[in-house]
Amino acid sequence: GEWSLIHELREMGVLTQINAESLSGNMFDKRYRYGKTLIQAEVIDFIGSDAHDMKQRAPMLDKAERTMVKLIGKEKAECILNKNAQVFLK
User: Fold this and answer.
1) Is 15:46 a contact under the CB 8 Å cutoff?
2) Strands (E), the chain
3) What predicted TM-score, i.e. pTM, was given to this entire model?
4) DSSP 8-state secondary structure symbol assigned to residue 20
5) Cα separation of 22 and 8, whole Å?
6) DSSP tally for the chain: helices H, then strands E
7) Tens of pLDDT, residues 76-90
8) Which of 74, 83, 64, 10 is nearest to 41 (CA)?
9) What does each C-alpha distance from 44 to 10, 55, 74 come to in angstroms?
10) What is the pLDDT of residues 8-50, one digit of tens each?
């Protein structure tokens, strides 16, 4: 199923990303629940803002960061938010 595909891709070295919006909803939002599941399963390497501007589609990283810190701790959240991208870009 879907989880075996995710794990197979990760074993091949594929890096994964979700949008911050996936972690900015509430427990009734299916995307939020799935985003939390992916973060807790530690299969996400990056968080994208999907921002286009500061008004209509502003970045929502602050709530996503708070959610990640609650789920996986500050150190792992910091890696996903910052360190992984820095390493990748080098």
Assistant:
1) yes
2) 17-19, 46-48
3) 0.80
4) G
5) 23
6) 5, 2
7) 999 998 888 777 777
8) 10
9) 10, 27, 15
10) 999 999 999 998 888 887 878 898 999 999 999 999 999 988 7
